[in-house]
Amino acid sequence: MIDFIRQNVLSHFGVNAEDTKVSSLGNGHINHTFLVRGQDREFVLQKINTEVFQTPTALVNNAFKVSQHLQAKVITGEYLLKVVAPESTSDDELYVDLNEHGFWRAINYLPFSHSIDVVSCEADAEIAAKAFGHFSSALTDLDAELLEDAIPNFHFLPGRIEALKQAVSNNSHGRAQDCQQWIDFVLSQQSLLQELQDVEAKLPRRICHNDTKINNMLFDKRDMSSLAIIDLDTCMKGYLMYDFGDMVRTFCSPEEEDSTALDKVQVRESIFGAICKGYLSELGDVLLDDERKSLWLGARVMCLMIGVRFLTDHLNGDVYFQIHHQGHNLERAANQFTMYQSLLNQQDTLSAYLK
C-alpha cells in the first residue's frame, strides 16, 4: 500500500514522493494510518474504511467543525490542548476520493507525541481522563445537531444485541458452537436494556468523542503531560456516559484488550478512582445530576457492548475489526466480558467514587 500512496495519493496533498518517507502509524482497528515525512513537512495520512464509515464525508466534516471550534478556544485560552486539524489537499478540499482505490484524508502531525496502550499508574489515568473531560467541556457550547451521524446508532446496545442474534442465526462461518457460552452470557444480560432506556430518556445529547481509548489521548513525551485528544472520526452527538464508560473499559485493566490472560483481566479500583477524579474535575460543574448518575451505567454498558461487537464480528467472519490471527475477535470479546463481570463484582465499591 505504501507504494500506491507514493504513486497515487501524495501528489493530491502537494507532496513530492521522491523526497518523502511514508510509514505505518498506530494500531487502530478500523482505518489504515500512515506518517508522511518530507524535507519540510510532516502529516498523518489515513485511508478511511468506507465499509465502516459509509458516508466518509460526514466523518471529515464533523472533524473539521470540531477542530475549528477547539482552535477558536485555543486562541481565547479556553482550550489548553493541541488540536488535531485537517490538512487540505492541493484543491483546498478536506479529502481525496479515489473511488475503488480509497477515500483519503490528512491531518496535522503533533511532534513530541507519545501514546500508551495500557495504563500503568493512577497519574496517567487521571491525566488522560482530565484531558477527555476538558475536550468534552470545550464542546458543550457547540450545537450537537451540527454534526452528522458518521455511524448511525453507534452506541446503541439494543441494536448491537439484535445484530448478535442475527449473526448467531446465520452462523455463516460455523463458529457459533465454539462460543456458545459467551452468546448465552450476553443474552442473560438483557435486563440492562430497560435500565438503559429509562436513563437515556433523562439525558441531554451532547457532542461526544465516542472512542475514548487511552491511546486516543497523546502524552507529551518531554514531560508526560497531556498533549492532545486525537481520532475525531466518531465525534457525534450522544451521551457522555459512553465516553466515561470507554475510559473505564480501556484504562482499568492491567492487560491489553486482546489479552487471553483472563485471570489477570480486572477493573483496578485505584485506576477507576483516578478516572473519576480527572474526568469530574473538568466536567463536574457541567454535568447535570442525571448525567452524573448515568456514568456507572455507561461503564457497564460499554464493556458489554464492545464485547458484543467483537463477538458479532467473529461470528460474521471478521469483516469489521482488523484481526492479526484467527480467533482474534473472540479473544477480544472474552476479554471485554471479563471486564464487565469484574465491574459487576465490584459495583458497590466502584460506584461510590461517583457519589
Automatic annotation (TrEMBL):
Residues annotated as domain Aminoglycoside phosphotransferase: 22-256
SUPFAM superfamilies tied to this protein: Protein kinase-like (PK-like) (SSF56112)
InterPro entries to which the protein is assigned, alphabetical: Aminoglycoside_PTrfase, Kinase-like_dom_sf, Pseudomonas-type_ThrB
Origin: domain of life: Bacteria
Name under which the protein is recorded: Aminoglycoside phosphotransferase
